[in-house]
């Protein structure tokens, strides 16, 4: 029996609301809801399956199947038709369920007499909470109107689940946002922190999913849409002539805000009985589901825009703005879907850690997190829908793990780990002013990486001998307009002042790839990491490079200056970049400005090609810094943003260490200073092996200097070199195991 598309659906939703309002236990509510749906749909069966854990669905209520199967029948995601609905997040509607691909007969339910099957995912904001199923003996497909009505009902069940309407005994009916949750992500910045969740965008709570008066709800929606459109138009006016990427996003916002299809779908949801905000959230959930399945980057971006626009519309309808009045907790750990560098910097140094649902290892946010010396986890799936403001959270940046609302055993183990870190920091402080001299008398110079003024206080506290890399692009990326030369000169002068005479290696703009400046966005590139970036942009668009070089020369004000060009792939690129520096120096001389007492110009070796550059290059360049992060991904042809491949290849691979040794030998033959700069330099085992390969300068994040200095002072690097040579002769792929065993035995002897 097909239901009337609008009036019967509204009646059903009103009955559901009455069931939710009753003073009854969660199980009783679920049982009543399945009876109401079966009656309204004219089907013999209605069942509700909810997740008991991320991989398992449990039959939680049924009308028509064997009642004894409730809380006994369980399916894995992808198992049977119900499991397939949950996995694909799509409706399965079939007149002959047993013949459908993936069908699995569950004998304890007594469902063998039912032919027709319609399964609807119960979703909220793209997160699947369960599956709603109706079945009948009659062999027939459910009509599109019936399927749509069931989708509306599933949306309401999702909201009721979120509001805690079905809390009862057992894992599947346990209250949401209260259980202990372990979320595995990716490490973008190491470290550990404990604190309270601070949501960058507080969740909007829809407390009234069902409405009495569709006409009134339609009017509310129209008014909110109009306010949204006016707001988007104002943002466009304000952004006119600014960041092209921002303009593109706002244009997409305006397109969606004026989309008749988007509005029509929400109006249709309201006519079925949903409130205006529930209708918006239903469309938002659909967009998020599509986003999760979209492989096309452009489509994902557009769905992302629609999702953001839905959030704005929800805040207008509910009045729940970003400013909820809540105060930032004492130990805030920021939780967000994604965040830009400027937004992250607005929190200053208050944050103890950051957890992102999206993000990447090389993102701007990761660079800022490193500058702030706080752990950062990326790709933490479901964190924004799972976490609530104020929840206890523990972030393990070393393992890429988030413990949300942890139980006592996890808390104890985590705090033990942090206590060990604290004890270690005390030990590191005791050797802060001592040299990183190995047992066989080799001294390694340890320097720090930086990119913000906020980094510079770490120069003295960490024991770093200078700044081996100052990333200059952050000052460009955190603003919508190009900074002026005078602003840059003042900033660079403050950096040099803060260094108090210690060397600072300024790297010119490393832009492109995932770092794009206003008015300099290139056309879409199939592989931007191998595309128009860094010195390639600087040489093709020399205006910005010249301005930056002039600012650096003026900031030096007669003091020694060290400048490094990024991503040099061949000798000619270095010569062209050095020629720009020579022109800038000559211009400053003509203008009568003081020139640096000493000027050193170097190159960052990030591509294997530069390791085989002509001898003339090694003779001319003042110094070389090996950019380990990029070099490693190009050496192994493994994108460091790709979790599938980046962990396959070990930094301590014999081939990679042999390549590094070759660079060291070439530099030694021309007496060219060479250093290693990157995350791997700050890992103690890697640092020992780099030293064994002949590298005498390592540059890392400030927090890594203590651990690296400590291990170097306890190591005979001649022994480590012998281990590497023996491993190479044996044909070993990596030396990690052999060196780790040597260090373990050496520590035991000590």
Write the layout of secondary structure elements.
Layout: H1 7-21, H2 26-41, E1 45-53, E2 56-63, E3 74-76, H3 80-88, E4 92-94, E5 116-124, E6 127-136, H4 144-162, E7 181-184, E8 186-189, E9 192-199, H5 214-239, H6 244-257, H7 260-272, H8 276-293, H9 297-318, E10 332-336, H10 341-346, E11 353-356, H11 364-372, E12 376-378, H12 383-386, E13 392-396, E14 401-404, H13 408-430, E15 436-437, E16 443-450, H14 457-462, E17 467-471, H15 474-477, H16 485-499, E18 504-507, H17 535-540, H18 542-556, E19 561-568, H19 571-590, E20 599-605, H20 608-611, H21 615-620, E21 624-627, H22 628-635, H23 643-646, H24 654-669, E22 674-677, H25 684-692, E23 697-700, H26 702-712, H27 717-730, H28 736-749
Parallel strand pairs: 9-10, 10-11, 11-12, 16-17, 16-23, 17-18, 18-19, 19-20, 20-21, 21-22, 22-23
Antiparallel strand pairs: 1-2, 1-6, 2-3, 4-5, 5-6, 7-14, 8-12, 9-13, 13-14, 15-16
Helix pairs in contact: 1-2, 1-4, 5-6, 5-7, 5-9, 6-9, 7-8, 8-9, 13-26, 16-18, 18-19, 25-26, 25-27
């Amino acid at each position: 029996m097909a239901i009337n598309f609008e009036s019967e659906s509204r009646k059903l939703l009103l009955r559901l609301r009455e069931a939710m309002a009753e003073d009854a236990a969660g199980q009783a509510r679920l049982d009543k809801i399945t009876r109401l749906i079966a009656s309204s749909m004219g089907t013999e069966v209605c069942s509700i399956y909810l997740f008991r854990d991320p991989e398992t669905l449990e039959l939680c209520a049924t009308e028509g199947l064997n009642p004894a199967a409730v809380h006994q029948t369980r399916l894995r995601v992808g198992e049977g038709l119900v499991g397939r609905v949950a996995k694909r997040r799509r409706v399965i509607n079939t007149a002959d369920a047993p013949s459908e691909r993936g069908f699995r007969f569950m004998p304890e339910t007594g469902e063998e007499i039912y032919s027709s099957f319609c399964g609807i995912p119960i979703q909220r904001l793209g997160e699947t909470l369960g599956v709603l199923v109706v079945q009948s003996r009659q062999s027939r497909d459910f009509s599109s109107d019936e399927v749509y009505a069931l989708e509306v009902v599933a949306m309401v069940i999702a909201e009721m689940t979120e509001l805690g309407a079905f809390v009862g005994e057992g894992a599947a009916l346990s209250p949401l946002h209260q259980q202990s949750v372990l979320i595995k992500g990716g490490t973008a910045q190491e470290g550990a922190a404990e604190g309270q969740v601070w949501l960058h965008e507080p969740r909007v709570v829809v407390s009234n999913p069902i409405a009495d008066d569709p006409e009134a709800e339609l009017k509310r929606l129209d008014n909110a849409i109009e306010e949204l459109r006016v707001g988007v138009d104002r943002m466009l006016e304000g952004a006119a002539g600014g960041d092209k990427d921002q303009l593109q996003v706002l244009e997409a916002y305006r397109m969606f805000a004026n989309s008749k299809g988007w509005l029509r779908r929400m109006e249709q949801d309201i006519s079925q009985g949903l409130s205006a905000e529930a209708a918006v959230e239903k469309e938002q959930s659909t967009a998020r589901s599509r986003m999760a399945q979209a492989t096309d980057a452009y489509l994902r971006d557009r769905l992302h825009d629609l999702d953001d626009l839905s959030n704005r519309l929800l805040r207008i309808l509910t009045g729940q703005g970003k400013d909820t009045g809540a105060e930032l907790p004492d130990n805030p750990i920021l939780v967000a879907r994604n965040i830009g560098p400027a937004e992250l910097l607005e929190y200053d140094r208050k944050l103890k850690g950051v957890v992102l649902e999206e993000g990447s290892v090389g993102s701007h946010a990761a660079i800022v997190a490193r500058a702030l010396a706080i752990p950062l986890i990326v790709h933490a799936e479901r964190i924004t829908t799972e976490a609530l403001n104020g929840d206890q959270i523990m972030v393990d940046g070393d393992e890429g793990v988030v413990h949300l609302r942890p139980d006592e055993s996890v808390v104890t183990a985590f705090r033990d780990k942090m206590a060990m870190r604290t004890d270690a920091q005390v030990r590191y402080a005791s050797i802060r002013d001592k040299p990183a001299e190995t047992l066989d008398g080799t001294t390694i110079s340890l320097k720090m990486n930086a990119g913000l003024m906020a980094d510079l206080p770490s120069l003295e506290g960490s024991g770093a001998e200078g700044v081996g890399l100052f990333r200059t692009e952050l000052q460009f990326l955190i603003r919508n307009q190009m900074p002026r030369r005078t602003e840059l000169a003042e900033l660079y002068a403050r950096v040099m002042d803060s260094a108090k005479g210690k060397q600072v290696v300024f790297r010119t703009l490393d832009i492109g790839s995932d770092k794009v400046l206003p008015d300099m966005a290139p056309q879409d590139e199939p592989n931007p990491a191998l595309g128009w970036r860094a010195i390639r942009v600087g040489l093709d668009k020399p205006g910005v490079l010249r301005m930056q070089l002039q600012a650096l020369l003026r900031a030096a004000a007669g003091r020694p200056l060290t400048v490094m060009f990024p991503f040099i792939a061949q000798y000619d690129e270095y010569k062209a970049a050095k020629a720009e520096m020579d022109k800038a120096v000559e211009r400053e001389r003509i203008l009568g400005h003081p020139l640096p007492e000493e000027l050193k110009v170097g190159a960052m070796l990030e591509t294997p090609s530069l390791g085989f550059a002509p001898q003339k290059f090694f003779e001319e360049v003042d110094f070389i810094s090996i950019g380990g992060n990029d070099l490693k991904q190009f050496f192994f042809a493994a994108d460091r943003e790709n979790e599938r491949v980046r962990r396959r290849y070990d930094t301590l691979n014999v081939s990679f260490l042999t390549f590094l040794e070759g660079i060291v030998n070439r530099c030694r033959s021309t007496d060219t200073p060479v250093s290693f700069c990157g995350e791997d330099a700050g890992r103690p085992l890697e640092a020992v092996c780099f030293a064994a390969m002949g590298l005498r300068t390592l540059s890392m994040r400030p927090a890594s200097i203590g651990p690296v200095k400590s291990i170097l002072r306890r190591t005979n690097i001649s022994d480590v070199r012998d281990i590497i040579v023996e491993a190479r002769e044996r044909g070993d792929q990596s030396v990690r195991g052999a060196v780790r065993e040597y260090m373990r035995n050496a520590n035991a002897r000590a």
